Amino acid sequence: MTDHSCCALCFRLPIAARPLQDTKRLLQAEVVAITSEIKRREASARLETDRQSAAQVGLSDLGRLNEQLASTEARLDAAKLETYFPKIKGFRFSGGGGGVYCGAKDLHLCEVSGAFSVALEVVPQQHQEQQQQQQQEAKLKITLSGLSGSSQSH
What we know:
By secondary structure, the chain is of the alpha+beta class. Helices cover 51% and strands 24% of the residues. The protein contains 3 helices and 4 strands. The longest helix has 67 residues, at 18-84. The mean pLDDT is 78.
């Protein structure tokens, strides 16, 4: 008999095999710990991949929504300009956005001084049917700085 009484197996093993049995138990415990750590890291990697995927989808959705918002704001501004300054009532010039709009039927200037730049660009038509039914539209942009003027002739 032995003085080692930790389990029934110890009684059956020779004394030289007992340290090997202890080593085996320690190694098995280490294998279990390493396996659980690998599973935890794999789960963490899957979560990170899912998070990155969700972030990319979210960013693409955000970009699409920003484009839709800009398009809707532009259509709203165009609708307000047409409502406030309809061409049928003689308004030839109108512009604005973000709640500030202006329009004019005629523009009379006798004298203008200052620095200004003029840009003219053709507005592309949305659909070919509209191209056949309507005339082409152009966008005139005048930028003024250091402006002074008079509407009376001297």
